[in-house]
Amino acid sequence: MREQNSKLVIAGLLGALGVGLGAFGAHGLKPLLSVHELANYKTGISYQMIHTVLLVVLALYSGQNRRLRFAFWAIVAGVVLFSGSLYLLSTKEILGLTNWRWLGPITPLGGLSLIVGWLAIAFSGLRPNSE
User: Fold this and answer.
1) pLDDT of 25-66, one tens digit each?
2) How far apart are the first and last CA of the chain?
3) Is the dihedral of CA 25, 115, 71, 121 positive or negative?
4) In angstroms, rounded to a whole number, what is the distance separating the alpha carbons of residues 41 and 39?
């Protein structure tokens, strides 16, 4: 039960952060970003919010299934890396991070982590009773 509560806290915080960053992007950043930068920012928000819903489901239903527990953490890492890097890449001029060239390769690593999480869910369905 304690692990489930911790996972729900993480999912709730990522959801709240997604809503807040989405509102900030739509109202505060829109006049400051190019169309391309704003589209990338919105992609980060979309992926964060979709995967936050998945995290709530995983928090509630992963129980003792180690593949679903693994999927939860892979998705968390994916959201942080994928969406987080898109937020930073979109706003790097504003934040003065123009020399942070290493941010670009972080996005695909985050995407890979999201894919691994989804595959862990799929594999858990192949052998649902494996702990």
Assistant:
1) 999 999 999 999 999 999 999 999 999 999 999 999 988 899
2) 17
3) positive
4) 5
